[in-house]
Amino acid sequence: MRTENILRRTERLRKAFPSLAIDGVVLFVFESANWQSVYYISGFRGSSAGVLITEQETCLITDGRYMTQASEQSPFTLIPQGQRSLVEAMGDLLKQKDCRRVGLEKEKVSAKTFEQIQGFVKDVEWKDASQLLPMLRRAKDSDEADLIKRAGMIASNAYRAVIAKVKEGMTEKEFDALLEYTVKKLGAEGGWGNHGFIVASGPRSALPHGVPTDRSFQKGDWVTVDFGALVGGYLSDITRNFCLGKPDTRAREIEMVLLNAHKEAAIALKPGASGKEIDGIARRIIADGGYGEYFTHGLGHGLGLEIHENPRLSPLSEDFLQVGDVITVEPGIYIPGFGGMRIEDDYLITESGAERLSGNLEQGLILL
């Protein structure tokens, strides 16, 4: 990550201090949990660290395993954890800097950690800053958009390579493993990390989040694959469908409804459009096609360092799209006992509309 990006982000963070009435923000990563927040603001990608940002300073605490890595990745002042716990080291730092009102991501910190830090610094007033980093991370800069685009291209190329090897008898798990391997082979860090790909064939494709099983692909099956890649910490999120042989007539009808719903929703993406409005465009097309009751989730979500971020496209969304948002569009139809499909791509909101970032895969049903 470029140092100028880190410095720009810390300045944006500081500008939010008055609204929360704080004089500092603390971020933690424990065993890789919440690495996204720490990485975004500091550039550090290790599995254990504490970050303190005050009005004047930026400090990063980590242990001996990561001191060299941290010095290479982050411009923050490095503080050795030493023989202390990470929480105790942060408590000592807060006392040293005389911080009195501190923001903490309470949604990311365990009750035990919060009790410990309160015990180490009893005179600090803690404010919930859980929404601060998601707010900063929402608008993607050009470097972030480029990483998501690269992740989309790698995932697309991997998918093409893998479906060329599909045959009857291959299992969902085998397809999933080959796709994950190929994504890495083509240069990605991996797939989705803690989130596995979705591979659901035949009647199982009616499961929106169907995890891969030992079910074998059969003649006439269509298969829904929700997949992506991780590049430089940033993710792509794509869903495609293929069929072994000639698909059912009803499957073709569902495909056409979804293609139309996706296209019209994507055309409407622009700054100022509401998440509810965009969702409604796709939902009306699906309902007019006779499948309204089978579209059971929101149309899309933000994407970046995490697979689900703000903003949201859904009937309940109160979000309005902004320049720099990266959003998925993923209409789906799922009929229990029959099967389902979803068509998903990733879009960057620009001044003039939206740019597709998720590779150049055709959206229609691929026949093998």
Automatic annotation (TrEMBL):
Occurrences of domain Peptidase M24 (ranges): 147-351
InterPro entries on file: Creatin/AminoP/Spt16_N, Creatinase/aminopeptidase-like, Creatinase_N, Pept_M24, Pept_M24_MAP, Peptidase_M24B, Peptidase_M24B_aminopep-P_CS
GO MF terms, alphabetically ordered: aminopeptidase activity; metal ion binding; metalloexopeptidase activity
Alphabetical keyword list: Hydrolase, Metal-binding
Residues covered by the Creatinase N-terminal domain: 9-137
Pfam families: Creatinase_N, Peptidase_M24
Cross-referenced PANTHER family: AMINOPEPTIDASE, AMINOPEPTIDASE YPDF
Protein name per Swiss-Prot or TrEMBL: Peptidase M24
Annotated source species: Aminobacterium colombiense (strain DSM 12261 / ALA-1)
